[in-house]
Design brief:
The protein is α+β, with helices and mostly antiparallel strands. It has 2 domains: 53 residues, Ubiquitin-like (UB roll), CATH 3.10.20; 72 residues, Orthogonal Bundle (434 Repressor (Amino-terminal Domain)), CATH 1.10.260.40. Strands 1-2-3 form a 3-stranded antiparallel sheet. A hairpin with a 6-residue loop joins β2 and β3. α2 crosses α5. The longest helix is centred in the middle third of the chain and has 19 residues.
Length: 131
């Protein structure tokens, strides 16, 4: 076996993407073994394909909107949804955001003033927890 890359095609709802899949490949039988790190690549490609096919925002758009709003990944997760590490996972294509998170991002992209309302709600929630 040797370390290399082979073309792999993933299909989701009639749309396909082909990419180079790293792994350990047998010279004789052409079978392969993939590590967890290798599988992350195929998982991310599948998430990218799903986002495109389902009309969700892709990672680069999520990152662009978050930065436009001036939010860290952690704060975005707390205000918009998903938790502390959610936006790190959305932006690295390790996790697809919910439609609610996508809808909120689209609205905030068009009207960033809505962020003030989310911050107020977060502050109210924090005040109630402290009481």
């Amino acid at each position: 076996m040797h370390r290399g890359e082979r073309p792999m095609t993933l299909t989701y709802k009639g749309e396909s993407v082909t990419f180079n899949m790293p792994g350990w490949y047998c010279d004789e039988c052409d079978e392969g073994i993939h590590t967890g790190k290798d599988m992350k690549i195929s998982d991310r490609m599948l998430n990218r394909l799903k986002a495109r096919k389902e009309g969700l925002l892709e990672a680069k758009e999520i990152r662009r909107i978050r930065k436009k709003l001036g939010l860290s990944q952690e704060i975005a997760g707390r205000l918009i949804g998903g938790g502390r590490r959610a936006f790190q996972k959305y932006e690295s294509e390790d996790l697809l955001p919910s439609r609610a998170v996508i809808s909120t991002l689209i609205l905030l992209d068009r009207d960033p003033a809505g962020l003030k309302e989310l911050k107020k709600r977060q502050q109210s929630a924090n005040t109630e927890e402290a009481a």
